Amino acid sequence: MGERAHRRLPRLAWLAAGSLCLAAGVIGIVLPLLPTTPFLLLAAFCFGRGSQRVHDWLLAHPRLGPPIEAWRRYGAISRRSKILAAAAMAAAFGASIILGAPRFALVAQAIVLVAVGSFIFTRPAPPLARIAAIED
After folding, report:
1. Cβ(58)–Cβ(64) below 8 Å
2. What is the rounded CA–CA span in Å between residue 132 and residue 128?
3. Cβ atoms of 71 and 41 closer than 8 Å
4. Cα dist. 47→6, 43, 98, 103, 114 in Å?
5. Per-residue model confidence as pLDDT tens for the chain (136 residues)
6. Residue 135 burial by CB count (10 A; 0-12/13-18/19+): exposed, middle or buried?
7. Closest CA to 121 of 88, 82, 91
8. How far is CA 54 from CA 42, 48, 73, in A?
């Protein structure tokens, strides 16, 4: 493998990871149990290392960019995203109960979900001027 191809491999890996995260985030827009914003944040991170052009496109996108901007500027999560996250966590836990997961798995899942929920619900909401753009 040549030196040039060897230097391009990490960039291609970041692009592939960013593409997978972006795809998961876009699917999460229509699939309520898949969180959109965390995947968009990961995609932006990956694209920042793999392709500045794609990174800039993602941040400028009218639908996908605002949640990333809110997180970067304010460490904020929109109210709508918090509600959807809570619903997804409750549905996942409920599904585990219905499917008969072992007690130790339910306890472990509950601990993780409470920790994640605590993190999500202690983040501020974006400033009022940005909420409409972020939640639409």
Report:
1. yes
2. 8
3. yes
4. 19, 6, 39, 40, 30
5. 556 656 778 899 999 999 999 999 898 888 766 778 889 999 999 999 999 999 999 999 998 999 899 989 999 988 888 888 888 889 889 999 999 999 999 999 999 999 989 998 999 998 865 444 544 4
6. middle
7. 82
8. 13, 8, 20
